[in-house]
Hints:
This protein is mainly α. The protein has helices spanning 3-13, 16-35, 40-49, 58-67, 74-78, 84-94, 101-108, 119-130, 139-146, 150-167, 174-195.
Amino acid sequence: xxxxxxxxxxKKALTKDRYEHxxxxxxxxxxxxxxxxxxxxxxxxxxxxxxxxKNFSCEELLAYAKANNVKIDPVTxxxxxxxxxxxxxxxxxxxxxxxxxxxxxxIHYHTTGREHMSKLEKIIYLADFIEPSRxxxxxxxxxSIAFEDLDKAMIMALTNTIRYVSSINSLIHKRxxxxxxxxxxxELKKNIIESE
Length: 196
């Protein structure tokens, strides 16, 4: 299915607000992809489909995950909305015909992040986090840093997520913590090398 056909299908499948959010994410993704010399077509496709399973109910997400052998860890069992990324990757493949593993991974991990994230995965995670309709303390600073230093922006975004999820006494997925630690370790190593 080409991008135009996917767009038409998503317009029907998503709520008006979710579709507008998706289009915002596509725009920011394309800008970030250009800035960091990533494949704009792949990035745009991942952005277009990143929330294709977002309108699934918690029951639908759990059932779809189970039916398609998507791993359901203890945290996602209790916070099923975290499954909209992994389930979305399966929907992107089965319903929309996406076969590119890099695109599918970017959809899969756009909510939690993970250790050793690819450039594309970081771009989708950040674009979702900073698109124009997002309003939270520090978003403007994060928007500007996102176009200066991808990893620094990722650390800020992941820290923000951990802080917010903690503040509402919700469960933090271990992939989010691992993603943040991985990026901080890389930054520390880079600083050590630069100072030698």
